[in-house]
TrEMBL record:
Transmembrane parts of this sequence: 12-44, 56-74, 94-112, 154-176, 188-211, 223-243, 255-275
Name by which UniProt lists this protein: Probable membrane transporter protein
Membrane-topology descriptor: Multi-pass membrane protein
Principal subcellular localization: membrane
Species this chain originates from: Rhodobium orientis
Amino acid sequence: MELTAPIGEIVMLAAALATAGAVAGVLAGLFGIGGGAILVPVLYQFLAFLGVDEAVRMHLSVGTSLGIIIPTSIRSFMAHKARGAVDMELLKTWAIPVPAGVVIGSLIAAYVSADGLKLIFAVIATVVAAKMLFDRGGLRLGDDIPGNPVRAIIGGFIGLVSTLMGIGGGVMNNTFMTLYGRPIHQAVATSAGTGTLISVPGMIGFMWAGWGAPGLPPFSIGYVNLLAMLLVVPITVLVAPFGVSLAHRLSRRGLQLFFGIFLLIVAVRFVLSLFL
């Protein structure tokens, strides 16, 4: 395909993408997310200015975001684990259900439209944002995380939905763990590990889903663009530990408010993009 954006705009957007990578890296450590909630809309705009076909633009944004999340989640997870904050028992029980959900999500992504992916992203982000903003700790579904088969079903659902959103699962996992009485700091730390379980098979799945698709830009393998990954990954990996440090200094309520406001802004942006 032929790129249509002037070189000046490409340079400017590359700088914006690098900045988004820095923000995503901090968010990875701060919220236990892979940064996809900020990367997906920025990648979408980046690809739009490059003249990438709208039919594959959202899919590329989601798939590339999952690729970027891999090293970011690993770096964030290791930093949280060093502080003893990760629930390793939960992660071990999700070693199969979460990737299984990712596989199903990748299969769905091969057929769902770009607007469909946007709508999924916006709806889930709004629900989770509302929970974070208005729940002061009183809303609980139980005193502890349920065992199997409920745990496995929830893990599979988190993997599926997060794959379709292009995120590392922190959005869903934070909500799940806090609804069952776990501290927000433990939820954030464990979510970084969940991101690893989602991002690796998710990237592979989007490569497969987009294999041979028309309209893909240069340096793409399926719905994953290697050039965008090369620009963003080093920055996100470098700054993720700063977010981890910040997460352990904030209060539970402060962490919830920041997370909820952030998600709500992203959801509004995607809803607006459906009509503009």
